[in-house]
Design goal:
The complex is a heterodimer of chains A (351) and B (591). By secondary structure, chain A is α+β, with helices and mostly antiparallel strands. Chain A is 54% helix and 13% strand. Chain A is elongated. Classes of the chains: A alpha+beta (351), B alpha+beta (591).
């Protein structure tokens, strides 16, 4: 397979972004669930290099933020007290990539907590929640897309290759799934489950539902590719030499679907991340206090938050580079790929 | 000089001629006994616009069960004796005076002379007797019926003369004349026929023509536009005047806009579409207070709403799963509940949920209630130390979890894990639950918060009883603690931790039942207070409900609205609607 430079570039961007999220414990200064009840809705702290007297400091620092007398969420900088920024500090215990126990964090402030993206209603660090929240949302997107594509590949290959009644049954089933109101399906599934669903169970439930509902479209694409591939000369030749169905599918036909699947994956992942966010936004996702991007945005349902605390919008911005990366990858994959052009659908079609 | 005299004479003439509406025939009637209310004298005219959380279901007090209908009915109807929302004491209303017999069983009420319904028909003792007959008729299913059954028997109502009615009780009743508050006197001339035909449900609906419905409240029906607004107009026969003898209410029209969403109400108030706003959340209060444009916000202090956490103490019998059984053995342990109470950071709840606009509470009687709180009740500050000691005494211990955190375990070495239900539509309570979750994590309890749609939450708590713990809130409708009688009594439907018991499940619940029954027939306030104080102590000791916080009543009004004094009792803002007026200003003159 020839990988063009464009594809490599987008893959590198995505690799870096996913690396940050995967190593959330290192990049996040604090535990995402830890409440600092003295500092609700603290605005992002400003990092200074020049102090009040105009002196330049080589080491960036932040000023202490104090609650204004009698106020709930009005803070002012106290220039008398500054805390220098430190790198590679020891802090909250975590497991790097879920295995390696560590206490090392990229940065922290000496003598005070530092909130570069502000805090939420409970005084939890938005930056930490954002990075850790990405783990849930991105993993849900990746796993969901994985399930969808494997299902789609199996169904599409069987329907396209064998044809006949199998094709009819599977494609009618696909149409049924396309028409399924999946949001309500999830509501229904949720209603049958026990009351208190743990964060892990809730996560896998979401992944399972968004993964199994979306297989119809990729299945149809794969079927189309398989239909045309199985009539090609080299396939006919192989069959003439006595190749079995399984061998033909595995050796000659399925490789033809590779670029379709890759492009689909690049489109589906951000779409499913968005789906996870929608569910969490509606309170169907992972429960508090586990962060996910949808959970982070759900506080924006309140008018008072909407007009008072601009930094609560930041999680929405954070996903832009991710989506850009995936869509960039999808379009460069399409440019390079063979003649199978896939009609690109809008991102929002699932939500 | 002469010129000035002449002009003032012209002015006087103009005034006399220009106000024909005030010179209604009733005012000349000297044998009318109007109630003179103290307070700032206002200015007549104008229109007051208020938002209402959705459409009222009905205007008929016999059917109304929802808060929105009751709010509208509150300004269209009047009662015999009324509780002043500001002083929280009773005062004469349609009845100008009342007498209680020596044994406390007989109330004699004397009506004002010359009372009229809003359609001009006179009101006398026959209307009162008719009203109570309808309320007490079982086939009508009026929500008021339960209130009128005292000592197991309905109240007997007897007419003495056109102005005097006697109410006979089977047993002395602690609340006394507060009983009459909110019981609207219905127009017999409009209701008698439908009542006999069994069609009471079809009258007083929103579709009823304005001339087919009447009340004795300050406003009467003018127009209803489905889905948009309900327009009420001034009742010219209203029985109150201000200190200068001007007939109330001041404003000509009262408009209820149907705005179902709290945030939308804030936007409407901010843009000046509505004149007053009530039941504002603390967050929206601070948004509105930031840059007030032509309006002012008022914090009336903590109200009668109390929020609490409770555990499932029901005995579900064989239906109970072993899992549930184990959890319930923790919940039934008093020290476990006391430990949870000690671990909860109430101060943080007040600060983070209510932005400081509320009060931490340790008992069922909310701080907005001026008379009934037990001052001796302890207000222990948060102490994780104490929580740990209590848990240790109850046989719990701690182990170290996978990530080095401490995990509380019971005597069988099973980790303590449970879930807390909250209403998914109430952001305040969801926040409380999230704070409690974090509080309890610090003593090693693993708690999960489950937001649930309110209906299904209520169903789980009162019907299926499948839950561990729940955060809920109740807003008492009156300052008298008897309004929460169903929370106090073990047989009550809102005795939430174990509702509608046939026999009290525990000794202390039995003791509480006895105290409450006893105060029901106590005659003096002091006696009742003493009994209630003891009941509050029992509750605080046993912690079936872990009381959390009580929010302030927050409201706002345009600067042009006069006599705006929000109270902590419902209806927070419209309780003195007849006295609200619009100050003269160029802006108002233009309307």
């Amino acid at each position: 397979m020839r990988v063009t430079r464009n594809v490599a570039r987008w893959l590198a961007v995505l690799g870096v972004l996913h690396g940050i999220v995967a190593c959330a414990g290192f990049f996040a200064p604090y535990d995402p669930a830890e409440q600092d009840r003295k500092s609700p809705y603290l605005p992002p702290m400003r990092v200074h290099v020049v102090d009040g007297q105009g002196h330049f400091h080589a080491r960036p620092f932040v000023y202490a933020l104090r609650l204004r007398e009698g106020a709930f969420d009005q803070y002012e900088e106290d220039a008398a007290q500054s805390y220098p920024l430190r790198f590679f500090v020891s802090g909250m215990r975590y497991r790097l990539l879920g295995v390696l126990p560590s206490r090392l964090h990229l940065f922290g402030a000496e003598g005070s907590r530092i909130y570069l993206l502000g805090t939420d209603a409970y005084g939890r660090d938005q930056l930490s929640r954002l990075v850790f929240g990405g783990q849930v949302s991105l993993l849900a997107g990746l796993l969901g897309a994985g399930i969808t594509l494997s299902l789609g590949l199996c169904v599409g290959a069987v329907a396209g290759y064998y044809g006949g009644w199998r094709d009819d049954v599977l494609m009618r089933l696909a149409e049924l799934f396309l028409a399924l109101p999946w949001l309500y399906l999830l509501f229904a599934v949720r209603a049958f489950l026990p009351l208190a669903v743990g964060p892990l169970a809730a996560f896998f439930l979401i992944v399972a539902v968004i993964g199994t509902v979306g297989w119809a479209r990729p299945a149809r694409l794969v079927r189309a590719v398989v239909l045309s591939a199985k009539e090609r000369d080299f396939v006919r030749a192989a069959r003439g030499f006595g190749a079995t169905n399984v061998y033909l599918l595995w050796r000659h036909i399925l490789p033809e679907t590779g670029s379709v699947l890759l492009t689909q994956a690049a489109i589906l992942v951000p779409q499913y991340v968005l789906a996870e966010m929608t569910l969490s936004f509606l309170g169907l996702g992972v429960p508090e206090p586990v962060p996910s991007w949808g959970n982070l945005l759900s506080s924006l349902q309140q008018y008072s938050v909407l007009v008072s605390y601009w930094w609560m919008y930041l999680p929405a911005l954070a996903m832009v580079p991710f989506f850009l990366g995936y869509l960039g990858l999808a379009s460069s994959l399409q440019e390079r790929g063979p003649a199978y052009k896939i009609g690109r659908r809008g991102l929002g079609s699932l939500t | 000089m002469c010129c000035r005299m002449l002009s003032s004479l012209v002015l006087l003439l103009l005034l006399v001629v220009g106000r024909p509406a005030d010179a209604s025939p009733q005012q000349k009637n000297t044998n009318q006994e109007l109630l003179v209310v103290p307070g700032e004298v206002g200015r007549s005219g104008g229109r007051l616009v208020v938002s209402l959380r959705g459409e009222p279901k009905t205007l008929n007090p016999l059917i109304a069960a929802d808060a929105r209908s009751r709010e509208v009915i509150g300004v269209m109807q009047a009662d015999l004796v009324h509780i002043n929302r500001a002083t929280q004491l009773t005062e004469p209303a349609l009845a100008k005076s009342w007498k209680v017999s020596g044994d406390g069983l007989e109330y004699t009420l004397v009506l004002r002379k010359g009372l009229k319904f809003s359609d001009g028909q006179p009101l006398d003792a026959d209307d009162v007797v008719f009203t109570f007959r309808v309320y007490l008729d079982e086939s009508v299913h009026a929500p008021q019926r339960d209130l009128l059954i005292v000592g197991g028997k309905p109240i007997v109502v007897r007419k003495v003369d056109a102005q005097t009615v006697v109410f006979q009780l089977a047993k002395t009743y602690g609340v006394g004349e507060r009983l009459f508050d909110g019981l609207a006197i219905l127009p017999r001339h409009l209701l008698e026929k439908p009542y006999q035909e069994g069609k009471l449900g079809q009258i007083g609906t929103l579709a009823t023509a304005a001339n087919q419905w009447a009340g004795t409240g300050p406003f009467r029906l003018k127009e209803y536009v489905a889905g948009q607004r309900l327009v009420l107009e001034r009742n010219p026969y209203y029985w109150k005047t201000d200190a200068k003898g001007n007939r109330l209410p001041y404003v000509d029209e009262l408009v209820f806009l149907f705005v179902p969403n709290a945030d939308a109400q804030v936007l409407k108030f901010q843009s000046g579409e509505t004149d007053v706003i009530s039941q504002v959340s603390a967050e929206n209060f601070s948004v509105l207070s930031r840059q007030p444009k032509g309006y002012a916000m008022t914090d009336a202090g903590p109200g009668l709403e109390y929020n609490f956490l409770f555990f499932n103490l029901n005995d579900a019998g064989e239906k109970t799963t072993p899992e549930m059984q184990r959890r319930q053995t923790w919940f039934r342990e008093v020290k476990f509940r006391q430990a949870v109470s000690a671990a909860v950071d109430r101060e943080a709840i007040v600060r983070l949920v209510y932005q400081g606009r509320g009060a931490a509470i340790w008992g069922l009687v909310a701080p907005g209630n001026r008379q009934w709180g037990n001052e001796k009740l302890a207000h222990p500050p948060r102490s994780l130390e104490r929580a740990r000691t209590l848990l240790k005494e109850a046989g719990f211990s701690w182990s170290t979890g996978a990530d080095g955190e401490s995990v509380l375990q019971d005597s069988d070495r099973k980790p303590v894990e449970f879930s807390i239900l909250t209403s998914s539509t109430n952001a305040d309570r969801a926040k409380m639950a999230a704070l409690i979750q974090d509080d309890l994590k610090q003593i090693g309890m693993r708690v999960q918060v489950v937001p649930l749609e309110f209906r299904s939450l209520l169903d789980r708590v009162t019907q299926t009883k499948e839950y561990d713990a729940c955060v809920m809130g109740i807003a008492s409708f009156d300052a008298d603690p008897n309004s929460d009688i169903n929370v106090w009594l073990s047989s009550g439907g809102t005795h939430l931790w174990n509702p509608s018991q046939a026999h009290p499940a525990t000794a202390w619940e039995g003791e509480m039942d006895r105290l409450i029954e006893e105060q029901m027939s106590a005659r003096t306030f002091e006696q009742r207070k003493k009994l209630y104080d003891r009941a509050q102590e029992i509750l605080a000791e046993n912690q079936p409900m872990i009381f959390l916080a009580s929010p302030d009543i927050l409201a706002g009004a345009k600067n042009s609205v006069g006599n705006f004094h929000p109270a902590v009792l419902e209806p927070y803002v419209l309780w003195n609607v007849e006295q609200l007026y619009l100050k003269s200003s160029p802006e108002n003159a233009a309307r």
